[in-house]
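[stage:ingest] chain + small molecule (zinc ion)
[stage:ingest] validated
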Amino acid sequence: MPKRIHLYDTTLRDGAQSEDVAFTLDDKLRVAELLDGLGIAYIEGGWPGSNPRDEEFFRAVKRLNLRRARVAAFGSTRRANVAVADDLNLRQLLKAETPVVTIVGKTWDLHVRDDLKISKEQNLEVIADSIRYLKERVDEVIFDAEHFFDGFKADREYSLKCLEAAVDAGVDVLVLCDTRGGTMPDEIAQALVAVREVGAVAFGIHCHNDCELAVANSIAAVQAGATQVQGTINGIGERCGNANLCSVIPNLQIKFGYDCVSAEELKELARVSRTVYELANIEPFKRQAWVGESAFAHKGGLHVAAVQKNAATYEHIDPEIVGNRQRVLVSDLSGRSNVLYKAKQFGYDLDYSNPAVKAVLERVKQLEAMGFQYEGAEASFQLLIEEALHGKVSHFRLKSFRVSDEKLGDADPVLAEATVMVELPDGSLGHTVAQGNGPLNALDKALRKALMPFFPALESVELHDYKVRVLGAHDGTDAVVRVLIESGDEEGRWSTVGVSTNVIEASWQALVDSIEYKLFRDEKKAHRVLEHDVKAGELPVG
Ligand SMILES: [Zn+2]
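[stage:predict] done
[stage:export] tokens:
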């Protein structure tokens, strides 16, 4: 039987102390549900004594019907000069009415002397009193031994005495904290061995990532006997963050064979990671191990050719085990395999010998040299494949556009106005004007106004994202601008790209690709025969 590991999540407490994270009450409840679905044993909900939102969380979380997770309230040991029954903080903890209470206390003599300014003996009483008092009133009491590893180094005997005081008072789990995150894995393991002499009690580990070792340290502790691991989703937390449970869990489970969550729950990992990023309003970290978007992405042609034969050639596990997926990127490093892989994703059945594959590859290399990039613009890339196979997708032709910006006074907003003249499918001219909050917005409105009588489905298209990137000048060329836009309708989202020395021109190209893609996709869906306007040598955008 693999050894059972109890996961203790502190995303909602330590994680929320991350400088760029602010969870609302609703966010916190969503996170709690996600953690429960992931099979986390303990959810630390916050510090009820510290702010009203945390108090409200503990009331609201009771109504959630969590499947398995036990909710823990967090606080600190009683204040040194107050009787335990009169301590406000401990009273708030009890008011949270959780089955588990976790309290943090000092185990480093330096903190006892310089921070608490009490005697070492008094600190032992503080720990013992607080735990005994809570243990009489709460089902499970966990003691977070703050700065334990620093204390162990400075005064081993005293740090162990602090743990003994907690054990004698009836604590359920002793959690050793590397609060400053400065300890090395071998030191963690050595300390754990010494600590196990303290008594027959369960041990936990709480690591911070200041040396990029929080995950390694957590694993070292488990191998030395710890059965509870504390951490946060995506490793968010104070300073460099906490041990990242999105790595701790698969490492312990897949690489070391511990029993953390079920195989089904493990498949939720990537989704939980992404959702927590979204709720925390943080851009997901692409290169994040296990769950990041790039964790199983292949770009080099050789790699792509190999993973298509056998994914194990460049993937250390099957990405689906953690709910992630394999991706193949198209870039100037690409070989034919990448193009074939993408074509297949878009529903084209091509083989190596198809001349269109070579044509697309040549085109991509040419365009990338100009500053285009297709890794974030899959709709533009699909239009390139379509062009190589059947000719350029073209539902309208630009005759001219004009954009102007006007600002009438310091306090007034800038108003953009666009005039567009396009040749429509029946040969007539569409000539429209529209205003917008910026040039792209105005162009988009004017273009759609012209096309709408022929293509009413354009009504549902929305622009979701607009990214402008200035690519530095080099080799005597002018600096160029790359524009990426993300559009969407009720059926999904797509991204397109444009490049020019002029930002409006680049935006126009991306906009035209977006609209052409939408019309093309709808038609393809309706199995209609497409009309193509084949023009050799013309750019596939703009
Ligand atoms: Zn911490």
